Amino acid sequence: MNSPERIKCLIIGSGPAGYTAAIYAARAEMKPVLYQGMQPGGQLTTTNEVENFPGYPDGVSGPEMMVQLEAQAKRFETDIRFGFITKVDFSGDLHKCWTEDGHEIHADTVIISTGASAKYLGLESEQHYLKIGGGVSACAVCDGFFYRGQETVIVGAGDSACEEAHYLSKLCTKVTMLVRRDEFRASKIMAERVKNTPNIEILFNTQTLEVLGDGNGVTGAKVKNSKTGEEREIPCTGFFVAIGHQPNTEIFKDYIDLDETGYIKYAQPGTSKTNVPGVFVAGDAADKNYRQAITAAGTGCMAALDAERYLAAIEH
Ligand code: NDP
Question: Which atom of ligand 1 is nearest the CA belonging to 157?
Answer without folding.
Answer: 9
